[in-house]
Amino acid sequence: MNTPLKDRLLRHMKDGHYEPQSKSELARALNVDSRQRLDLRNLVDQLEEEGTLVCLQKGKYALKRERRDLVRGKIRILRSGKILFLPQKGDSAAAAMGWDLDSIPELELKPERLNTALDGDQVAARVERKASKGRHNGRKSASSASNVNLKARVEEVTKRARSRWLGVFRTGKNKFGRVLGDGSGSPAYIELTEAPAMEVLPGQLVSVEPVSYGGDKKSPRGKIVEVLGYADDPHVDMEAVIRKYDLPVEFPAEALQEADALPAEPSARELARREDWTDRTVITIDPASAKDFDDAISIRTTPEGWVLAVHIADVSHFVQPGGALDREARKRGNSTYLPDRVLPMLPPRLSDDLCSLRPGVVRLTKACEMKFNKKGKMLHARFADAYIRSSARLTYQEAFAMMNGRDKAGIPALVKEAWKLASILRRNRYAKGALDLDFPEVRAVMDKDGRVTDIVTEEYDESHQLIEECMLAANEAVALTLKNRNRPTIYRVHEEPDSAKLFEFGQLCKLYGHPVHDIGQRQYLNELMQSIKGSPDEQLLKLALLKSLMRARYDTEPLGHYGLATPNYCHFTSPIRRYADLVVHRSLDPLLANPPKGAKGPGSVAALEEAAEHISETERVSASAEKDANRMKLFEWLEGQCFAAHPEVHDALITDTRHFGILLEIPRLQIKGLIKPDKLPGGRWVYEAFANRWKNDQGFVLCAGLRVPVIPVKVDREQQWADFAIVPRENQESPGKKIVKRKHGRHRPRK
Question: Which residues sit opposite 338 in a β-bridge?
């Protein structure tokens, strides 16, 4: 590094009158001759990489320091292209300037205000009020409650969400080629600075290490460090998802060593201090494909009602605070479930073995024992460390068969008794105003090479509801106890929805013919959802409501859960796959009937706040990765259907009509598509713009709100879009609805 030049540059920038300047402006200000200009540019890049300098808007540079006039937050770039700035809760700069940013979840940014930030990046943004039009301009104070008129501009990227970029390699004018990213987690255009060390062909997916992030009208630059292969090669699509979201795959050696050192059997001393449940019937109910079983139930009847015991794998016994396993679990935050693999939060030694409540094996648990009366009211809850020997590992299908069978004793009787209580709890929950947002699960069935062979829908039946109600009851009981005993912990919170988004949802429901009142009040929202139930539009509108609600997250304050209509809620029942549950177990330890000796607890409130924010983010990243991966497999299957002899027919809902075709949505698959005019059967069709519909010469019309049977005819897997063709139903000459014309002429005389 040119030390004299560096000293001159830093002295210049530390001057109290310095204003951010571009590289060219810095060169002129420092009187750098043409021979040293390249050295200056390299020096600025190096200081930026080190974190000494930051690149601001329009490629201007400043010393990195705490900027008290900037609001901290994160960037979200949605699939639609919308760019959002999510302010950090309780930001001191926002409070100092009078912005009530805690009351709104996001501010929309224009692309030119994004600087070099990408999806998920932590940034410092300047928040200002938009200039008002008209004579009232400037009359509102900075403390005005209206945040609708606020705008944000990214000034600095404080932390990058991803260490690598992902894209498709292309040759071009640049001698080393270029990489085209998705414009969200990776730049849309990446200029390569050197030839790759490995062979790479045009069209292959590659991983790129950033060299510079661009700005000042310059493209981001990088170098290829890995070639994944073509997108349709086996497993490459899933590897691409892992790289795109920077998901951790391998466990550190230290964490694996710590897991391997754990004893295979609990010690006699450990068992002696715990409650023995091995002589009672305890069962697990999980998906057929599940490998880890972290929850189990047991139930018995009493004259007053029932005693329900929920047993949860005692992960906190094996994962000690601050250890290698704990550090890695916290870093991951949760397990991620891709169609062809699981990226677990804990090593398989724990998730698939020591902490898995397998049948016939002694396993350590946290027990939540709850007494209910015959109306489903919880009378009492107690908590203890226990050990069980699971009597049976049931799949949902097996449990459902038992619930509807005639067996009068043994495990089927336990399942039936549990459903009696669960059905009452479920009815009570909806009576309190809980929202019914359950969806059938659509998943891909794959062969050994990772290629999709089928798409199946798993209905959310009573067996799923049984387990859900038992787990919800335990989560609520634990949260209420921790709150009442003032124990620091992490709660699961779901805040009140934004009124404007609820209004938009109500307007959508009106378009589909459903009566809408003041759905800002829970009573009327539930009435609306009841009216939707069973209608052809149910799944589509439930999904629209879900999108209008706030995203559930973790917090150290018990802010309640809007969707479940409960003021007290936490995550307690899945510590194998969620770090939040592990924290809650540690918070609960001192309150157990038999607390473990020397329990350290979950840490300080400040540490919990940091952990809550972190695991909220890891959950969001995992959810996005899972959704991306599932959609990839769905479109792979749709592409195969285009060439199938007997493709599956889908029930599609027309959402809009345009001159270029008919826009539709398939609620079951949650995908959108297009029917082009040449794929409309049954006569000659014309587009009537004045009526926003397509009409044929037989008097049939196609317009928004109608349902039509379709098959895929063309699929763009990269853009995740499909073209469809209408398949007329049996005994139907033409799709759509028939226009009935009233005959004109003289009125018939009255009889």
Answer: 341
CA–CA separation, 488 and 739 (whole Å): 65
| pLDDT for 137 | 42
Q: State yes or no: pLDDT of 135 exceeds 70.
A: no
Would you tell me how many other CB atoms lie within 10 Å of the CB of residue 463?
24
- Strand, helix or coil for residue 99: coil
387-415: b (≥16 Cβ within 10 Å) or e: bbbbbbbbbbebbbebbeeeeeeebbebb
Percent over 90 (pLDDT), the chain: 58
Contact indicator for 302, 380 with CB cutoff of 8 Å? no
Report the alpha-carbon distance of residue 383 to residue 362 in Å, rounded.
19
Pairing of strands 671-675, 721-726: parallel
Contact 692, 704 (CB under 8 A): yes
Which residues are within 8 A (CB) of 100 and not within 5 positions of it... i.e. 6 or more apart?
A: 94, 143, 145, 147
Judge residue 255's burial from the number of C-beta atoms within 10 Å of its C-beta, 0-12 exposed, 13-18 middle, 19 or more buried.
Answer: buried
User: CB-based contacts of 206: which residues, under 8 Å, 6+ apart?
Assistant: 166, 167, 168, 169, 179, 196, 200, 224, 226, 227, 228
Give the other-Cβ count within 10 Å of 595's Cβ: 15
CA distance 132 to 663: 37
Torsion of CA 359, 363, 366, 367, to 10 degrees: 50
If you average pLDDT over each of 149-153, 201-205, 733-737, which comes out highest?
Answer: 201-205
SS3 376: coil
Could you tell me which of 603, 575, 490 has the C-alpha nearest to residue 314?
575
> pTM of the full predicted structure?
0.83
Q: Is 90 helix (H, G, I), strand (E, B) or coil?
A: coil
Phi, psi of 606 (to 5 degrees): -60, -40
What does the pLDDT look like over 480-526, one tens digit per residue?
A: 999 999 999 999 999 999 888 899 999 989 888 888 888 888 888 98
Q: What is the DSSP string of 601-633?
A: -S--HHHHHHHHHHHHHHHHHHHHHHHHHHHHH
Report the distance separating Cα 295 and Cα 478, nearest Å.
15
738 band by pLDDT with thresholds 50, 70 and 90: low
Note the pLDDT of residue 728.
77
- Burial category of 354 from C-beta neighbours within 10 Å (exposed 0-12, middle 13-18, buried 19 and up): buried
